[in-house]
Design a protein that fits this description.
Blueprint: H1 2-33, E1 38-45, E2 48-55, E3 61-67, H2 78-86, E4 90-94, E5 106-107, H3 114-132, E6 137-146, H4 148-159, E7 163-169, E8 184-189, H5 194-208, E9 217-218, E10 227-232, H6 244-258, H7 269-288, H8 305-323, H9 336-357, H10 383-390, H11 396-422, H12 433-454, H13 463-481, H14 483-486, H15 488-514, H16 518-535, E11 539-540
Parallel strand pairs: 3-4, 3-6, 5-11, 6-7, 7-8, 8-10
Antiparallel strand pairs: 1-2, 2-4, 9-10
Length: 541
């Protein structure tokens, strides 16, 4: 029976691997197929990276300049770009100063955004001039922006009446008036904060005099007075960029503005991206079985619930209190510097508490408890002779290094390539490399302590989930204490939760294979440092 069970386990692993690979290949083929019929080229306007999407064949057409939001990049706006380009428009995306692959940091005080706003509006203007000068352009232009960029595109359109339609996604703009910009569509996710929905209604009411309703159009495209607030169902601040409701509303609006009619093609990447990343996560399970066992028995703190609760809760409460009034602006990545310190302080507090709780144990953080060796015997054919002669046994430290490198590489590159291609900028440019290293100082300390306290031979079921939830609780407390400075963390918490879930699974599979929490901890630390160092904008204050 044990032999049969082992054989069934091997068959099951192979089946999961085959199904995961099939899901990955199918989703990549479908994502690539969405670009068929288009000609996509990369350009640079000054230092600004620009990508142009246009039909491979056809007449000249209006251009739509598409701008991303805070901590975004042009990849985030691809669903709009593909939807518009497949319907005959010339769509142009770009990376704002300080974002994505743009090597130039923003300069100024984000609490006094006038100067930064002016820089971003001017940059949008340079990209718009480039777009209108393209050979495929018929000279007409519309503009679309998300979140931070909703205010930027509204200000640009106000100063340039030749803009025939403006689409503001997740809008917040004190600059909007009842008359300008012309032909304004506002799109907001139905699950976004109510303040954004109220802001959208406020802007529409400037034109209609009150009583505006979502889903209803006002005014006339001919005189530029058209106004509409659309709610994309079931999505939040990031999901609104992938919603078919958003794509359909934007396409219909620019079609009305330009008097055009496309074939109605809508980007449908969410289902294929979900299948792709599900396949990558699933594939990690059979691959984890190839990792070397680094310890003879499961390592970790093995905390009881009586020990675990204070070790998990105290850092969650103390970290935001310690950092509340502390200066945190030591890196040029906005919010990334705070997250680095939050990781660091949280990890150090956790380590101190866990070490205090384990002060009577003999196990160290990185090596299993030493076991007495049998008396040496050097006769021919002994186990020691076979051990030395085989040349295949790797010391525990070496196995840990191999496992950590393998899991880190999988997390960063297997996930990183499709993320960079279809979701957001994930491959670093040279000015960001040292930022990734700086963030890693904090993330390594946090994840090593978090993984250690969550595991062990007698670890409690649910310990891992509790530890991660406490960290999210800690971020929530930090935001509540300093809402103005850390407000954007509210928006990215769903992304952090998804990362915890996906890479937490992989971390636990690597733990079961290696018997040690360090490979998963270092891999998680690497991917979080990588993501934070690349995603958040560079700002010189």
């Amino acid at each position: 029976m044990p032999v049969l069970i082992r054989h069934l386990a091997v068959v099951w692993r192979w089946l999961v691997a085959v199904l995961a690979l099939a899901a990955i290949v199918l989703s990549l083929v479908q994502l690539q197929r969405q670009e068929q019929g288009l000609r996509i080229t990369d350009h640079t306007v000054g230092e600004t990276p620009v990508r142009v999407f246009r039909p491979a064949h056809g007449d000249k057409a209006p251009v739509v300049v598409i701008a991303h939001g805070f901590a975004g990049s042009q990849q985030l706006m691809q669903p709009f770009a593909l939807t518009l380009a497949k319907n005959g428009y010339v769509a142009v995306t770009f990376d704002f100063t300080g974002h994505g692959r743009n090597p130039v940091p923003m300069r100024g005080d984000v609490d006094e955004p006038t100067r930064i706003t002016g820089v971003l509006v001017a940059e949008t203007g340079r990209v718009a001039d480039f777009a209108r000068a393209l050979p495929e352009s018929d000279g007409r232009i519309a503009i679309l922006g998300h979140s931070m960029a909703s205010d930027i595109v509204i200000r640009y359109a106000q100063a340039h009446p030749e803009v025939e339609a403006t689409v503001a996604v997740s809008v917040f703009s004190p600059a909007a008036t009842g008359e300008r910009p012309g032909n304004l569509l506002i799109i907001i996710g139905s699950l976004e904060p109510s303040m954004l929905i109220n802001e959208g209604l406020r802007i529409i009411n400037l034109s209609v005099g009150g009583g505006a309703e979502p889903g209803r159009s006002y005014g006339d495209f001919k005189d530029g007075s058209a106004r509409r607030l659309a709610l994309s169902s079931g999505v939040e601040h990031i999901g609104v960029l992938y919603s078919q409701d958003s794509m359909r509303e934007a396409l219909t609006w620019v079609n009305e503005a330009f008097g055009r009619h496309g074939d109605g093609w809508i980007d449908r990447r969410p289902i294929w991206m979900a299948l792709l990343f599900a396949g990558l996560i699933a594939l990690a399970w059979p691959l984890s079985k190839l990792l070397p066992q680094a310890a003879p028995e499961p390592m970790g703190a093995s905390l009881t619930w009586k020990q675990l609760l204070p070790a998990a809760l105290l850092p969650a409460v103390l970290t935001p209190l310690i950092l509340w009034k502390a200066p945190t602006e030591f890196l040029i990545i906005l919010l990334g510097d705070y997250l680095t310190l939050h990781f660091l302080v949280y990890g150090l507090l956790t380590a101190a508490i866990v070490l205090y709780l384990q002060r009577h144990t003999r196990t160290g953080l990185f090596q299993p408890r030493p076991r007495p060796l049998p008396a040496p015997h050097h006769g021919p054919g002994t186990r020691l002779d076979r051990f030395l002669a085989s040349g295949t046994v790797v010391p525990s430290a070496g196995k840990l290094a191999i496992a950590a490198l393998a899991v880190s590489a999988y997390n960063i590159f297997a996930f990183g390539w499709p993320l960079n291609a279809y979701a957001f900028s994930f491959m670093p440019i040279e000015p960001r490399l040292h930022l990734i290293a700086a963030v890693a100082v904090g993330s390594v300390i946090y994840f090593v302590t978090a993984e250690w306290m969550s595991h062990g031979k007698h670890a409690r079921r649910g310990a891992y989930a509790l530890v991660k939830l406490c960290f999210l609780l800690s971020l929530a407390i930090a935001v509540a204490l300093n809402l103005k400075k850390l407000f954007f963390l509210i928006i990215i918490v769903p992304a952090i939760l998804l990362l915890f879930l996906a890479f937490g699974l992989i971390s636990n599979w690597s733990y079961r294979a290696t018997n040690h929490p360090l490979p998963g901890a270092l891999a998680n630390a690497a991917v979080f440092a990588w993501a934070i160092g690349i995603t958040f904008p560079m700002v010189i204050r």
